[in-house]
Amino acid sequence: TTSRPPGYPFFLSVIYLVFGHNLLAVWIIQSCIWVLTCLVIFLIGDKLFNFSTGAVASLIAGIYPAFIHYQYYGGPAFILTETLFTFLLTLSMFSLIIYLKNRSYSWIIIAGFLFGLSALTHATIFLFPFCLIFWFYLAKDKTSNWIKYFLVFCACFLFTIAPWSVRNYLVTGKFVTITAKAGESLWGGNNLWAKGGFALIRTFHFPDYNIREFSGLNEVDADKLKFKKGIEFLRNNPKKIPFLFLKKVLVHWSPINESKRFNYSYFIIGALAFFSMLELFFQNRLTDISLFLCLF
After folding, report:
1. I want to staple 49 with a disulfide (CB 3.0 to 4.6 A). Which of 53, 112, 120, 239 is the partner?
2. CA 47, CA 172: separation in Å to the nearest integer?
């Protein structure tokens, strides 16, 4: 199938190969991975600020309710990608910070490899490495060629995901980088019934879906048709784009979750993030700020 990236299934297959189909083993290993994630968060805080900041950040991550028990997105006790993906993404960001400190090709290679693994675990991160061209430009110094560093980074990223892209071509006969889900995401978020979130196609929330139109299509061709419909909506409704964009921003940053419950820790984390960015700004560390702004 091309409907999901291979990273997490491969992760589970290794665990099942060693321990058998044992969910307890998955929970324990994912809990250990989350502990390692908190450790990496500590290292990021220590590198960007100081030991105390890293320790506090790690403590907050360890007790943050949304991290301990993702009600909708999956925590260590769930058989979902988020725990592994968060670890890989955090480790990827840390590797870029280390590169920034010593301008080493070895760390930029590691960063490209880790971002590749992150994309193979959760394909939503696929375009992020290419957006980092602005960060590499800001991170340049007089003694380094930032374009070379960026190209090496992208090459390592693409090299990491290339085997899966080749596999997809051999299986489907069509070029699919990681997953054939771009069309579903585009059309699901851009339609007459869109409220800033994602309308799950094939449900009663999505009246535009006509099952006959998609019958007989393989998953790659079906996704291409969905992508075409998403583009058609944007082309035919240009005046709706700014309002829809505003709705998406509000939904993304809203402290009210999908079950209409108030996330009491939202403002605490938001305030800490804001003041951290503010301190970096007053220290004239725009490169550090831009890295996390690119991620957002």
Report:
1. 53
2. 45
